[in-house]
Amino acid sequence: MNVCCVREKLFCQSLAKLKEDVVKANTLVREANFLVQEMAKPIEFSVTLQIPASNLSPNRRVTEHSLFSHFYVCAA
Fold first, then answer.
1. What is the residue extent of each domain of the chain?
2. Backbone phi, then psi, for 75, in 5-degree steps?
């Protein structure tokens, strides 16, 4: 298998893992927002994805879980 195919496969795996993690985080945020609404608290949670600028280079070497390592649940 050539390097290009390996890189593409790793990218697709990382992207699939990111999607899975974001879906989980969004589900938890939805539940948290429901709970704070029930408690009449003025808080709203959200999910924020941050991709470091260094990860946006087309020449960056791809390693598993290295592309999308920063997302946060924020309260406002």
1. 3-75
2. -110, 140
- For 24-27, the CB contacts below 8 A with 24+ separation are 25/71, 25/73
Say how far apart CA 21 and CA 47 lie, in whole Å: 11
Nearest 5°: the CA angle 54, 64, 56 is: 20
**Per-residue DSSP letter, 1:** -
Q: Cβ(62)–Cβ(36) under 8 Å?
A: no
Q: What does pTM read for this prediction? A: 0.67
Inter-residue contact 43 to 65 (CB < 8 Å): no
Judge whether residue 40 has pLDDT over 90: yes
The secondary structure of 10-48 as a DSSP string is HHHHHHHHHHHHHHHHHHHHHHHHHHHHHTT----EEEE
